[in-house]
């Protein structure tokens, strides 16, 4: 498969070399009926996030290098795209390029349904494949079953991400709490805050944050083999095994002790973040995608970050993907835009804005906070600690996990019942894809 990919890429490169440079630079008309004069682009990053800042600059550069081409940009919500992508991409209203979540249940499902363009030749000829390390490229490639890690390129990530703990240094100092180095240390710290009437964790149970805490607890008892079995269907997973059993029991225990507020079952990710940014909570466990905002908005207190204590494995991956819908009308323009987001200037800007670039010049990252973030991510990658995300293995699994963890928060189901609930759809999908 790899040799065939290289041969087809070489052939594509030869064809590109024969095309007029002016046509390549301006994108040209597309076989899908595009006019070569409009780039329709969707993404769901906030304007002041690292990615939002970098991609706004990329749009500027695209316009400068493509005179006469109009960029029609629409900022969407994460949930909006997640819930409606299948319908939109099946219509004639599909954008030319869009940000989309990675993993079997997201980009993998769309690739299997024929809704995404195979961009393997572009990934090779434009150097995207070479710029991404194998662990980061895992989420860009999908086989005929829609399982990540092999097969064709259906997307390109231009940043990395991982989950960590943000902490309020002022509250830690006020209550004489040390940065935890082990899970036991973390529980001691949360107990101290709780004893002093301070809710320890800002948690969003209505969306992804709570399930990532649950997954971190499972990862604390897991190894690389378990991650690959769970994510890539290499071997069967026992949901009543030590990993998920520990996660469910410990999560429920944290709720009973008040470390996780029962009201957090209805809290969305944005509200969780805003609560931490206001200085109300000492700890928020969430992704590096918050980093740029924390830098800009956490102005009333000193803050820092630490990796989830004691873990060698952490939720994380490449960032979300730039994908080109199969029904995109101006695919060449889409490829040109993706290429700009991978250029050093955009990558360096992303890094200095609180993001994790995949192809930046390390010496060009001058911001101290950004350097710390990138170094932490590099360490996770070096330790082979990227464990992807819990909702990736199966279509619809995100909602399954949200509902399951909400039941742990509000106490409407016991841990073993929740494990049964999250096991069934996972196992059903595993059987469907022949895993």
Give a structural overview.
The protein has 435 residues and is α/β, with parallel strands linked by helices. The protein is 49% helix and 11% strand. The protein is built from 20 helices and 12 strands. Strands 6, 7, 8, 9, 10 and 12 form a 6-stranded mixed beta sheet that branches. The chain has a 4-stranded mixed beta sheet with strand order 2-1-3-11. Helix 3 links the parallel strand 1 and strand 2. The longest helix is centred in the last third of the chain and has 18 residues, at 415-432. The protein is globular, with a radius of gyration of 22 Å.
Assess the beta-strand content as a share of residues: 5-15%
Individual helix count: 20
Shape: globular
Arithmetic mean of pLDDT? 89
User: Structural class of the helices, strands and pairings?
Assistant: alpha/beta
**Helical content band:** 40-55%
For the largest beta-sheet, the strand count, sense and barrel status come to: 6 strands, mixed
Instruction: Tell me the total number of β-strands.
Output: 12
- Through-space gap between termini: 20 Å
Radius of gyration: 22 Å
Low-confidence stretches: 1-29
List the helices and strands and how they pair.
Blueprint: H1 2-18, H2 21-26, E1 38-43, H3 50-65, E2 70-75, H4 78-89, E3 97-100, H5 104-112, H6 120-125, H7 128-131, H8 134-137, E4 141-142, E5 152-153, E6 159-168, H9 169-174, H10 183-195, E7 201-202, H11 208-219, H12 224-232, H13 242-256, H14 269-277, E8 283-287, H15 291-297, E9 303-306, E10 316-318, E11 321-323, H16 331-341, H17 344-352, E12 356-357, H18 368-382, H19 397-410, H20 415-432
Parallel strand pairs: 1-2, 1-3, 7-8
Antiparallel strand pairs: 3-11, 4-5, 6-8, 6-9, 6-10, 6-12
Helix pairs in contact: 3-16, 3-17, 11-13, 11-19, 13-19, 13-20, 19-20
